[in-house]
Amino acid sequence: MGKGRFEAFSDGVIAIIITIMVLELKVPHGENLEALRPLFPVFLSYVLSFTYIGIYWNNHHHMLHATHHITAANLWANLHLLFWLSLVPFTTGWMGENYFAVLPTALYGVNLFLAAIAYTILQLSLIRAAGEGSLIKKAVGSDIKGKISIMLYLLAIGIAFVSPTISQALYVTVAVIWFIPDRRIEAVLKDSEVS
Amino acid sequence: MGKGRFEAFSDGVIAIIITIMVLELKVPHGENLEALRPLFPVFLSYVLSFTYIGIYWNNHHHMLHATHHITAANLWANLHLLFWLSLVPFTTGWMGENYFAVLPTALYGVNLFLAAIAYTILQLSLIRAAGEGSLIKKAVGSDIKGKISIMLYLLAIGIAFVSPTISQALYVTVAVIWFIPDRRIEAVLKDSEVS
Amino acid sequence: MGKGRFEAFSDGVIAIIITIMVLELKVPHGENLEALRPLFPVFLSYVLSFTYIGIYWNNHHHMLHATHHITAANLWANLHLLFWLSLVPFTTGWMGENYFAVLPTALYGVNLFLAAIAYTILQLSLIRAAGEGSLIKKAVGSDIKGKISIMLYLLAIGIAFVSPTISQALYVTVAVIWFIPDRRIEAVLKDSEVS
Amino acid sequence: MGKGRFEAFSDGVIAIIITIMVLELKVPHGENLEALRPLFPVFLSYVLSFTYIGIYWNNHHHMLHATHHITAANLWANLHLLFWLSLVPFTTGWMGENYFAVLPTALYGVNLFLAAIAYTILQLSLIRAAGEGSLIKKAVGSDIKGKISIMLYLLAIGIAFVSPTISQALYVTVAVIWFIPDRRIEAVLKDSEVS
Asked: Which of B146, C27, C135, D185 is the Cys-Cys partner for D139 at CB 3.0 to 4.6 Å?
């Protein structure tokens, strides 16, 4: 099976997720600054999640670039990732509307953690389909960034019960780590002159 | 008429359906576990429907893969399927918010039943367009899975008035049956070396 | 300018319009038939509008099939059409929630009328870009269906103030007229063996 | 990296933004003209923002037409633009529901201003990727329209605190300036016979 419709469907779902999140920013009734103030934490959490979904789209894009065929297992691994990403608008809204309280901050981390696990499973599934000597296998390499992220998410979930602020700082840290797109894959793609 | 825009439109609608369903998971006002608890059945029904819509996308994808031309009748058969799928967010939300009560559980089954009928009509319509000796005719075969699903939906609708729990178990059973993508089509496609 | 991205954008907007309309079907609080009853007119109006948007997508698709180049004027004529179509979820919801009352029924007609005018403008704009001897000019022909629809919409708007039921019947009539896709275009395309 | 998926993702997000804005037009409870009246300013602000998003799609489309390769920096510059555009439904709704009051009018201008800055950054980022002698560099030229727009937005933000009506007139003025698509790029593309 070709990857065209696979990519198009993923892009569609990710584009909808990144856009409907803004619906959590409910238009306030008043027309002054007071009316806007309670929305500030919701806005901040929106910025964070927009960045995360942007990172996922970016990495998904790069990973698929190093892939040629899609198996049925890949398809389900991808839907599994999209499932956890689809919950990000909910956990983002809950965290924002509760001013980054303990439980919402922890749940946000659980969501990011499960999405990261799903992304890792998708990566492994694509590598298995392509074979051990494949381009994608080389491109992913030891996936240090992915492993660090998962550990930081776990750390942030635990710390949320002590200080949600530190958890938030950890979420921002992981976003910064990933902000720079996956040079490994780009480098390997360039080397192999496949792209 | 080519199938490119046909697939793109179907993908778009299915991607939107699978994503807007999450809007039924309304962000709760409290910040503790109590606030989250009433959402649990809504979440469960979301998982079930996400899987179903994923299965439909998957099967739609495979079926179109064995097709080359799209007629006007195919187009309307497809819109008919998308219509019933578009109601899934509504019936899912109703079932989840009422803790899998009798009538919502039955209506959910009616929705799945009508979507399955619409899928069968689309399949027949594509076969008629392609001809009796066509690839898609061979790929679909006797469509045992489809017939079993329809019978299980009817059973689940009736049983809902006795025990909604058994109906839920039947919905999960059908999802599991379809979870494995349609190997028949893949096998025939491989045999005929068309894909 | 090629028509690929033009079609993709139109498909995206139309797919979103046809799908978010279902959000007007608000999940009711009760779990019995009584809770569902007030939604019945909303459901009926949803069926009607789903059919209309489906017809627009279908005809848009066929019209673009007979076109090769898109000018800046075509682009704006298309956005103008999408604007009126984007209001259909609103006028549909208003009509459904007020049990097909006088003013909502008339406004629905105004919306359909303006969308039809916009479609006619887009058609003329595409013909002007392609030239008088073009395929699309021949395919559109005298556009009798389009002219009849516009007159029936005007009639329905006026009659709504006497009997909304007759207006509804007229809306259904127009939908039935268009339900059969534009054979003229298909026929001309086949003749010219361009498609 | 090719620009196909880049364009598709941008189109998806822009199509969703332009369509979900209509959700701010909440279906009123009454069935008479009185019920519709408070929606009139929301409708007007919707028309304005629909035009703006249409202009952005149009210009984005033209700009990408003069581009061949997309770098990682381009991707983030694009997501940055989409971020500010994604807030347009919110600022539009706030302005419409408050009858074009002072602060909502100013905030709408801030949103347009930041989107314009993001568009300029994307333009510069694409030019840097393509090189100084590139087609896009020539096509963009001195970008007088862009510079005028940014200055008019700043003016409108300031004036909003004196007369929101003048600010609205300025927003309409900028829309009119851009309504005519970017002839510069089309002209250069034609000259170079690349398109």
From this structure: D185
CB-nearest partner of B27 from A76, A94, A102? A94
Distance CA D123, CA D149 (A): 15
Task: Give the residues of chain D that fall short of pLDDT 50.
Answer: 193-195
The closest alpha carbon to D15, from A51, B57, A17, A15, belongs to A15
Residue B132 DSSP one-character state: T
Which residue in the block uniquely carries the two structure tokens 């560099």?
Answer: D137
CA distance D92 to A27: 9
- CB–CB of A87 and B25 under 8 A? yes
CA nearest neighbour of D74 among C160, C5, C117, A58 = A58
Please determine, for residue C50, whether its predicted confidence score (pLDDT) is greater than 60: yes
Cβ of C12 within 8 Å of Cβ of D7? The answer is no
Q: Is D72 on the interface with C (CB under 8 A)?
A: no
A163's tokens: 């200080």
Q: How does residue C43 score in pLDDT terms, banded at 50, 70 and 90?
A: very high
CA distance B57 to chain C (A): 15
Report residue A138: phi and psi, to 5°.
-65, -40
Chain A: residue whose CA lies nearest to B11: A9
Q: Measured in Å, how far apart are chain B's first and last C-alpha atoms?
A: 19
pLDDT for position B135? 83
Measured CA to CA, the distance from residue C178 to residue C153 in angstroms comes to 13
pLDDT (tens digit per residue) in C62-76: 888 888 888 888 999
Instruction: Give dist(CA A65, CA A58) in Å, integer.
Output: 11
Residue C125 CB partners (closer than 8 Å, separation 6+): C71, C73, C74, C77
Determine which helix (DSSP H) or strand (DSSP E) holds A175, and give its type and residue range. helix A164-179
User: Is the CB of D187 inside 8 Å of chain C's CB atoms?
Assistant: no
**D112 contact partners, CB below 8 Å, separation of at least 6:** D52, D153, D171, D174
Q: Report domain extents, chain C.
A: 4-192
Return d(Cα A188, Cα C68) in angstroms, integer: 39
Q: pLDDT tens across A59-108, in order?
A: 898 888 888 888 888 999 999 999 999 999 999 999 999 989 999 999 99
Distance CA C189, CA C179 (A): 20
Chain A residues touching residue B15 (CB < 8 angstroms): 9, 12-13, 16
What is the rounded CA–CA span in Å between residue A10 and residue B18?
11
- State whether C97 and D50 contact (CB < 8 Å): no
Output the 3-class SS for A33-87. HHHHHHHHHHHHHHHHHHHHHHHHHHHHHHHHHCCCCCCHHHHHHHHHHHHHHHC
Reported ipTM: the value is 0.89
Contact, D50 vs D102, CB < 8 A? no
Decide: helix, strand or coil at residue C18.
helix
Cα(C60)–Cα(C10) distance, integer angstroms:
9
Would you say C146 and C120 are in contact if contact means Cβ atoms under 8 Å apart?
yes
Burial string for C105-137 (b: 16+ CB within 10 Å, else e) reads bbbbbbbbbbbbbbbbbbbebbbebbeeebbbb
Residue C114, classed as helix, strand or coil, is helix
In tens digits, chain B (195 residues) has pLDDT values of: 668 888 889 999 999 999 999 999 999 989 999 999 999 999 999 999 999 999 999 889 888 888 888 888 899 999 999 999 999 999 999 999 998 999 999 999 999 999 999 999 999 999 999 887 888 888 888 888 899 999 999 999 999 999 999 999 999 999 998 876 556 666 666 665 433
